[in-house]
What does this fold into?
Amino acid sequence: MIYCVEDDSSIRELMIYTLNSAGFEAVGCGDGRSLYEALAHEKPELIMLDIMLPDEDGISILKKLREEDETRDVPVIMATAKGTEYDKVIGLDLGADDYLAKPFGMMEMVSRVKAVLRRYSAGRKDEILRCGDLMMNLTEHTVAAAGRPVNLALKEFDILKLLMENPGAALSRERLLREVWGLDFIGESRTIDVHINTLRTKLGSCGSSIKTVRGVGYRMDPQS
It folds into this structure.
């Protein structure tokens, strides 16, 4: 799904028609309010966002999108008739993925949309961690052990993430405490041991991939 946020109805309908003809599913929004209503029902693959909009401009909308957890990773292509370098720089600094200056051709728009979605898909691949039969999806914040969903507490997830990001490396209890709980955390290494034991239990047969390194801490065995 692609949301086209454009207040000019003739341009908006042409964008929707072109995107639908190119194999995408697209719907139009005339202003920020209608975009927020659409987002409440479905998260899109990409947003085409005009800067010059009634009531709330595209720059303000983009800033809100990037501040919200649900929309901060949605690709956004900005469009404006202003043609000033300032608007382009501000939009890109706030997290826009690309920029189209009006008037732009419909085929150019489709080409930009495809390019942004390709980059986004490539980036998503790096957000999946695998180690043996363990799989962690960083985007969805989920874990599966041998195909079985595993419900982890926040700290358990963070510990497992750190171990999976460093397969085969022995991580000290002190490092785990520092990186998971923060530099200001004051606690005993026993805290890590308790969380590791819980992790192993929740992961079932995959829990054996977390090895104890005597006198040091723990490591993730990439062969398990």
Q: What stands out?
A: The mean pLDDT is 87. Helices lie at 9-21, 32-41, 58-67, 85-93, 106-125, 154-165, 173-181, 190-203. The longest helix spans residues 106-125. The CA atoms of residues 143 and 152 lie 8 Å apart.
